[in-house]
Amino acid sequence: MAQRLRGEIAKVIVGQHDTVDLMLTALFSGGHILLEGPPGTAKTLLARTFCQALSLRFGRIQFTPDMLPGDILGSNLFNFQTSTFTLSKGPIFCDLLLADEINRTPPKTQAALLEAMQERHVTLDGVRHDLGSHFTVIATQNPIEQQGTYPLPEAQLDRFLFKHILGYPSVDEEKRIIDSSGNASAATDPVTAGVSAVLSGQDLTAAIATVATVKLNPANLDYIVALVRATREAPLLSVGASPRAGAL
């Protein structure tokens, strides 16, 4: 299953094997992943290609400085014909959400994702709306030192299973990227490149259930607890890892 997904992604993405493996790990373990890297390192293209290879409901949010929480969650609109309120769902109502350049919007708007990422549901006007057990966030961001970005709140960073920093490709990989870009028939769009869905919702449910049966060795448990607690005493860290970090 994972090998088929890697094969589809390789139709568009050159290299980035470690990144793809981490994305698969997050998907099968029910976690979220944050991809960080300088502009032009295919963060968005990788996320789009990954989503295209999955037969799941896909949503995308292009974060901007003027975005409001309602642009993400949706809102209840009054219907004058029926004199009732109707829910207009936002892009967060999906299985796989691409949160593109998430750090280009202020923390107030970023916080709209907190409930969804932790509990996989959102609350609008006191009413709970489930997002489904497959709800997963693949977020991308540019480094904080880039102009026009906002640091993610600690509470939100704590909800990501992985934060992966994308580096630049190797010499050979960069040659392949440039060579394919110079080819008029080369496709950088996943659909045009022929990326097809090879994993259904039922397949994902079965994979997650299989991962959940893996037992944690007591020695590994002791190591995880020791590692998490050590981060709280490290003088170079302002904030240590939370119990949720250990549970993830």
Question: Could you describe the 3D structure shown?
Answer:
By secondary structure, this protein is of the alpha/beta class. The protein folds into two domains: 2-211, P-loop containing nucleotide triphosphate hydrolases (Rossmann fold), CATH 3.40.50.300; 215-248, no CATH class. The protein has eleven helices and eleven strands. The chain has helices spanning 2-9, 17-28, 43-52, 69-73, 107-110, 114-119, 154-157, 171-181, 201-212, 218-231, 243-247, and strands at residues 33-36, 54-55, 58-62, 74-79, 84-89, 96-100, 121-124, 127-130, 136-141, 162-165, 199-200. A five-stranded parallel sheet has the order 3-6-9-1-10, with helices on one face. β4 and β5 form a beta hairpin. It starts with a helix and ends with a helix.
Brief summary:
This protein has 248 residues and is α/β, with parallel strands linked by helices.
Write the layout of secondary structure elements.
Elements: H1 2-9, H2 17-28, E1 33-36, H3 43-52, E2 54-55, E3 58-62, H4 69-73, E4 74-79, E5 84-89, E6 96-100, H5 107-110, H6 114-119, E7 121-124, E8 127-130, E9 136-141, H7 154-157, E10 162-165, H8 171-181, E11 199-200, H9 201-212, H10 218-231, H11 243-247
Parallel strand pairs: 1-9, 1-10, 2-11, 3-6, 6-9
Antiparallel strand pairs: 4-5, 7-8
Key words describing this protein structure:
11 strands, globular, alpha/beta, 37% helix, 2 domains, 248 residues, Rossmann fold, five-stranded parallel beta sheet
